[in-house]
Amino acid sequence: MNSPLLAVLSNVLLDNRLKKYVTGNLVSGLTHECGVFGAIGTGDWPTQVDVAQVICLGLVALQHRGQESAGIVTSEGKSARTFNSHKGMGLINNIFNDEAMKKLKGNLGIGHTRYSTSAASEEVNCQPFVVHTAHGALAVAHNGELVNCSSLRKMVLGRGVGLSTHSDSELITQALCLNPPEGETNGPDWPARINHLMRLAPLSYSLVIMLKDKIYAVRDPYGNRPLCLGKILPLGSSYAYKQSSAQHAAVLMNGSAKNGLDDKAEGWVVSSESCGFLSIGARYVREVLPGEIVEMSRHGIRTVDVVERPADKQQAFCIFEYVYFARADSIFEGQMVYSARLQCGRMLARESPVDADIVSSVPESGTAAAHGYARQSGIPFMEVLCKNRYVGRTFIQPSTRLRQLGVAKKFGALSENVKGKRIVLIDDSIVRGNTIGPIIKLLRDAGAGEVHIRIASPPLKYPCYMGINIPTREELIANKMDSNKLAEHVGADSLEYLSVEGLVSAVHYNMKTTPSDGVGGHCTACLTGEYPGGLPDDVDW
């Protein structure tokens, strides 16, 4: 904490990007920035694991986190000078054809799928970023957004390092090339460099960092962005999920298991979410803990350092991962996302009951909550909307015009289920309020008697500067209308939100850890305006 660079960063200023969030000049949608993935074979190299294919399939499972661009970088573990790399714009399956995959030979690699928040949607900003240092090549993939990007950029540029993009992911890559303040004796001390970066920039990121023969998995000290570990098992092994991070942590403290050594593991993977593990023959093991630096090598995994957050600060895992962004079969904090969404629906039914004939959902992310509402209320669940599976998520598209067109062609109404019915329609969230109206009209046109909207999350009222591209306060419909006025505006018979207390209670209901254990705290800044590190212009890191 005595580094002179920390003194530079202690006076954090709003850069142009963050000013736009606060002052309301940025027009943007509700989007997540990206997903990261890494894989490494264990034992003798060349590995029997097809690393590039594993990463590609892992990225396909993370496609919901970003649809603009993707990239994979691999290393054969022999040369520190060269990596194999392929990046492009568009969806995973369109970028990585057979010719591209043949070039991605390696025993380890990292990948990234992206939606832009801090930099433009251009191929130059595709990740992973690769830089060539005096000690060899370095590749980085990043999920999140640096709160103090402006001051960190000034510091890096002041050290004579050039930056070719406006992406804070490239900034992280270049910052890792700087010597730590305590110096280095026998070559680069990468854990020390990562530790130094984490103290310079405590929010918000999950990182996968690849060297010639190692991968480092890194999560910020607040645990704001998700990151988890999985074990690639031989074919025929059981793929049962571990129940909790706490259980596995206890196992890690015994004997050689502490270093992640396991004769049964053919390799290790790290991912923003666990949803793709089963499809690649991997078993979910645990989350990377807040502030933890995990080293992945051919010998297994081991924790090399843990950077603590301030003593008066709690973990601040983004609660909107549960609400919207994560896939329902992913595991966070010892529970499946689906079960948390189901409990949100139960809480919503308790808080905002209504007389109706059927409960239904806006698929897909509203479905689990709708089932919870139906079970709690005793009203039967029935599908009323037919989704076109070949249209992407409306909020993940960067242009307003594309988003509006997406609503029009995304759904059809199941008129036999709708006609004459009083419907409770569950959705996960409302941002601008310009997508739920057309859906209600669709149901009315199909003969619905009543349409009551229930939202399985609280009103979105504040912007996020930690990797979720939430619109400005002026754009958020909850800041313009209360639930009664919004119901009238969108054509609903009634509209109610889940309370903040109800959401937190639902998320904690099935957690295997509690906030009193020092983990399990959640960031609700977009709902309450209470930011983990304060507002961007008054943080005192």
UniProtKB/TrEMBL annotation:
Pathway per its UniProt entry is: Purine metabolism; IMP biosynthesis via de novo pathway; N(1)-(5-phospho-D-ribosyl)glycinamide from 5-phospho-alpha-D-ribose 1-diphosphate: step 1/2
Q: What is this protein called?
A: Amidophosphoribosyltransferase
**What's the catalysed reaction?**
5-phospho-beta-D-ribosylamine + L-glutamate + diphosphate = 5-phospho-alpha-D-ribose 1-diphosphate + L-glutamine + H2O
UniProt domain Glutamine amidotransferase type-2: residue ranges: 34-299
Q: Which gene encodes it?
A: LOC113522892
What top-level class of enzyme does the UniProt entry assign? transferase
Which keywords appear in this protein's UniProt record, sorted alphabetically? Glutamine amidotransferase, Glycosyltransferase, Purine biosynthesis, Transferase
Q: What is its EC number?
A: 2.4.2.14
The record's InterPro entries line, in alphabetical order, gives:
GATase_2_dom, Ntn_hydrolases_N, PRTase-like, PRTase_dom, PurF, PurF_N
| HAMAP family membership | PurF
Q: Where are the transmembrane segments?
A: none
Q: Does the keyword Methyltransferase apply?
A: no
* Family label: In the C-terminal section; belongs to the purine/pyrimidine phosphoribosyltransferase family.
